[in-house]
Amino acid sequence: MTELANAEAFENVHEWHEFLGGNVTINSDESFEVAIGSRYRATFVNVDQNVALTDAGRIDWASVEFVKLTAISEVP
């Protein structure tokens, strides 16, 4: 659960993603998954009202301060 506790220490989601390194997967629906140990993953979505988009129309995670945990699931 350390991965989740660390999230509060960062100014934006991009910083958290950089800290997590390979433990983050950004999905095509703009949700992202964080590996929690080797058995679980947590899925988050953006809930920030002031999100910026990249030139490609994707979320600029450096502009996101607020996310919502939508699921914790076991890795198949």
TrEMBL record:
Source organism: Rhizobium alvei
Record's protein name: Uncharacterized protein
